[in-house]
Write a structure and sequence with these properties.
With 516 residues, the chain is an alpha/beta fold. 37% of the residues lie in helices and 16% in strands. The strands form 2 sheets. The protein has a 9-stranded mixed β-sheet with strand order 5-6-8-7-9-10-11-12-13, sandwiched between helices. Helix 17 links the parallel strand 11 (411-417) and strand 12 (445-449). The longest helix is centred in the N-terminal third of the chain and has 24 residues, at 158-181. It is globular, with a radius of gyration of 24 Å.
């Protein structure tokens, strides 16, 4: 079990260095787990990790332990080592040389341990080919990374490793406690059912003043204009959905299709500076990582979509109310939704905390947030036409000022996965939303998803809207029907999920801790 826990923890820190380093004549041969209290090292030989047979025949400390357990350790290691690492880790960290992203990665590696014999300078493009070959086999495993990591050995300080594991655990503990204490919302209701209207999908491009090229958008519309009757009560609302880092509108067309079937008009812009095509260009060495300026360009994309709808450039089937727009987003797209709702980014905490390796809030989303240290103060881009927003898994703890909630004129529903390790619920949702809700009377809410990770809350068209379809529809319907000046009232039930139970924890959030 100790060896298995070690390998799982290494996946967080070691792959950060691996994805930024070139292949060298020598590659990592050993991992040394340093036990400071015993003044000794526990030797793990990388070449023995490819199979249980190699481990049983090996001569490292781990091989001795495996023989003593009749191969049990080897079987557990094989399952862990050969499982694929999250592709987003590769994308975030690769080809980041010379950017704030690289600085954050090196800080993460330094927090875990030391890489002996790491060559300089770091040239990410040289390492790309090895990872590309590994990915062609079906994915990149931790073992693939270790076998291609330049240098001589990796030394891991057990004290550092233990602190990191405890921190990751603590960042999810509050969510687990809230989930265990509250009943799940019922999943029996009309919110989860497809609406009565057929829908159509199309794509087009619109000219925008803030980008040199036209902005590509996907549009979902209902056939309500042709079939509606006076009693149908069709919403005249426009919904704009912003995708996350290196993502694509198609991963959110499940939300769009579900909303369109209930009469909403949905537009999904493709953010060109941080979408999948930009990721492919970056990984092939043709472009650098997303620039900090994208923090401001993304909300401008959404505002430009609203402008285009108001000016008739989208050729919509029926008119929409562009003075009362609804916005949703995931991950970085959720941060974009918060900006449009009125949350004000600021560099103050980025400058204060980005180099604090032992801060209890530190998590993987800080790699992205700390990339905005030079652009945060110029990215306050609230759009008064946005009246309600859904922010799913938003990185927010560093980026937004503690008092920025007072500037949010739109009602915001934040959704966080209880098992999200990329944007963990404790520091990035529970703590900041506890402050937001106590500071304002705008009806902001927080919903936790049991079993929700950073990626399984998205919804392509194939899964019909996913676990959040009822919640998003209920929130936007409440926002559409709320009297002027009144916050939306989320229905008490009927918008839950049978696969990933949902809980509205708004009234049960703990008192915010004092700022460290």
């Amino acid at each position: 079990m100790a060896a298995s826990r070690l390998v799982r923890a290494l996946a967080t820190g070691l792959c950060s260095a691996a994805l930024l380093a070139p292949p060298a004549a020598r590659s990592i041969e050993t991992i040394r787990l340093r036990l400071p209290l015993l003044e000794t090292d526990f030797l793990i030989r990388v070449s023995e990790l490819r199979s249980p047979a190699a481990l049983l025949a090996g001569d490292s400390d781990l091989a001795e332990l495996d023989r003593a357990t009749n191969g049990v350790i080897g079987q557990k290691l094989k399952a862990v080592l050969q499982s694929n690492l999250p592709l987003e880790l590769k994308a975030v960290l690769l080809n980041a040389n010379g950017s704030p992203l690289l600085e954050q990665v090196l800080l993460l590696v330094g927090a875990l341990g030391d890489i002996d014999g790491l060559p300089e300078p770091i040239e990410p493009a040289q390492f790309h080919r090895a990872l590309e070959l590994a990915a062609a086999k079906g994915g990149i495993s931790l073992l693939d990374v270790l076998e291609n990591l330049p240098g001589e050995s990796v030394t891991v300080e057990l004290g550092r490793l233990g602190y990191s594991v405890q921190r990751f655990r603590a960042q999810r503990l509050q969510a687990e406690q809230l989930i265990a204490a509250l009943p799940a919302v019922s999943s029996k209701g009309a919110w989860l059912e497809a609406g009565k209207f057929a829908s159509a999908r199309r794509e087009l491009k619109i000219d925008v003043a803030h980008r040199p090229e036209p902005l590509a958008v996907v549009i979902w519309e209902s056939s309500a204009s042709a079939t509606a009757t006076a009693t149908d009560r069709i919403p005249d609302r426009l919904v704009v959905i912003s995708h996350g880092l290196w993502d694509d509108p198609r991963n959110f067309e499940g939300w769009a299709g579900h909303l369109a079937s209930h009469g909403y008009t949905v537009v999904l812009p493709r953010h060109p500076g941080s979408d999948q095509s930009q990721q492919r260009a970056m990984l092939s060495g043709k472009q650098p990582p997303p620039k900090p300026a994208e923090l401001a360009l993304r909300p401008k994309d959404v505002s430009a979509v609203i402008d285009a709808a108001a000016q008739g450039q989208l050729n919509l089937r029926r008119p929409v109310n562009t003075k009362a727009v609804l916005v949703a987003g995931h991950s970085w797209g959720a941060t974009t939704a918060l900006q449009l709702a009125g949350a004000r980014p600021t560099a103050s905490r980025l400058e204060q905390l980005c180099e604090d390796l032992r801060h209890p809030w530190r998590n993987l989303s800080w790699v992205l947030q700390c990339n905005f240290v030079g652009s945060a103060d110029s990215a306050a881009l609230a759009d008064s036409r946005v009246v309600a927003a859904v922010a799913v898994s938003p990185p927010m703890r560093l980026l937004f000022d503690i008092d920025s909630a007072r500037g949010m004129g739109a009602a915001v529903l934040v959704v966080s996965g209880g098992s999200d390790w990329v944007v963990p619920p404790g520091p990035e949702a529970i703590e900041p939303m506890a402050r937001v809700i106590r500071a304002t009377s705008e009806g902001h809410r927080l919903v936790l998803v049991e079993g929700g990770t950073h990626f399984n809350l998205r919804s392509s068209l194939a899964n019909g809207g996913g676990a959040l379809r009822g919640l998003i529809l209920a929130w936007f319907s409440a926002a559409s029907q709320a009297p002027a000046g009144s916050p939306p009232q989320l229905p008490p039930d009927g918008w839950g999920s049978s696969t990933m139970p949902l809980r509205d924890v708004t009234k049960h959030l703990p008192e915010p801790a004092n700022q460290p």
